[in-house]
Prior knowledge:
Blueprint: E1 7-10, H1 14-25, E2 28-34, E3 50-57, E4 60-66, E5 79-83, H2 87-98, E6 102-109, E7 114-120, E8 126-132
Parallel strand pairs: 1-4, 5-8
Antiparallel strand pairs: 2-3, 3-4, 6-7, 7-8
Amino acid sequence: MKPVLPYLTFYGNAKDAAVFYEETFSLENQGMLKYGDSDFPSPPEAADYIMHCHLTNGNFSIMLADSSTPGESGTTNVSLMIECESEEEVNRLYNALLVGGQAIMELQDTFWGAKYAKVRDQFGYTWDLNFEKGQAE
Length: 137
């Protein structure tokens, strides 16, 4: 079985999210398709909405799209976990995700020997950031 790949759903702001995630996580956009570029049945106001976008860098990959139906986007009951490779990386990601977002758990040293934070980003998605301090940087 291949790794699980998160597919994030938005309503009208997937393109903004794609740009933000590309910059924040140093991802490469593998392609973006708009509803208006396809023959998929969708309302006219969804023509510029993103039907599919794939962002990746090595083994970090996410997909995202706009729903063409209001109310179909969702950000609850799931959090995306990132195992950071350095203290610098966990600090950088924490600060980037806080822009327009909210700390659910401030970046801190934990009893399990990690530097950890939980942040809800400006698009409503929750990210768990973890750096195991015992690992080599």
